[in-house]
């Protein structure tokens, strides 16, 4: 019996657009609820969400056998942290703030067993191998790992072609909010220079045959990014959906018009 098939990675290879949602509440219950909403993938956010290893492990367990593929974003791309998440069953990673080819190469090695990488051999203790009930896990695990790196700064854009050319990097994800901030447009991810930088990045990523990812909570932007060629995209967050629903319920009952001038703080 081999390692579980990575349905998200397979879909990207077959050029099937994948729609996603951010899950940042740090709750396995919330992740389980979201997994029934029909999204192709859910991003379990360990960078900005209130998550630690036990919470992320519980969310991976709640989502992994559903139709929504769990993607884990750790706070940073440290090999020791990725090793633990791999053993808990994570197969797809979104790594923040990757700015150099050297970083990307180190990440490729961190998520693969030797001789292709440096991942420690301990999956028998975790969910990844069904607690050592998957006899062919060690020999098949590497093929099912999907590595997505985030491009979120001018330095990353400058190194994009080098990063995209690396074997083992399956996709590049543009972080509009952080990229906008680094370009001098804090809180303005839809500013014209930022949109043009994203468009150019998408074109360059596509030339390397890698998947292009992005996220937004603004429907108009989502359609624009899709038209630019996004191969996978998140269109909201569990936090955003919860706030919108609870605030809207109260306003609807009291007959209060929704505010139209709030810009929020990124996603």
Question: In words, what does this structure look like?
Answer:
The protein is an alpha/beta fold. Helix content is 40%, strand content 15%. It has twelve helices and eight strands. Strands 1-2-3-4-5-6-7-8 form an eight-stranded parallel beta barrel, surrounded by seven helices. Helix 2 (28-34) links the parallel strand 1 (18-23) and strand 2. Helix 2 (28-34) runs parallel beside helix 3 (53-63). The longest helix is centred in the C-terminal third of the chain and has 17 residues, at 238-254. It is globular and about 60 Å long. The protein starts with 6 loop residues before the first helix and ends in a 13-residue tail after the last helix. The mean pLDDT is 96.
Cα-based radius of gyration, to the nearest Å:
19 Å
**Helix run count:** 12
| Major beta sheet, strand line-up | 1-2-3-4-5-6-7-8
Terminal residue distance: 40 Å
Descriptive tags:
12 helices; 15% strand; 267 residues; alpha/beta
Short description:
By secondary structure, this protein is α/β, with parallel strands linked by helices. It has helices at 7-13, 28-34, 53-63, 79-87, 101-110, 137-140, 154-158, 160-164, 176-182, 192-207, 219-228, 238-254; strands at 18-23, 41-45, 69-73, 92-95, 146-151, 171-174, 211-215, 232-237.
Chain-wise SSE layout:
Blueprint: H1 7-13, E1 18-23, H2 28-34, E2 41-45, H3 53-63, E3 69-73, H4 79-87, E4 92-95, H5 101-110, H6 137-140, E5 146-151, H7 154-158, H8 160-164, E6 171-174, H9 176-182, H10 192-207, E7 211-215, H11 219-228, E8 232-237, H12 238-254
Parallel strand pairs: 1-2, 1-8, 2-3, 3-4, 4-5, 5-6, 6-7, 7-8
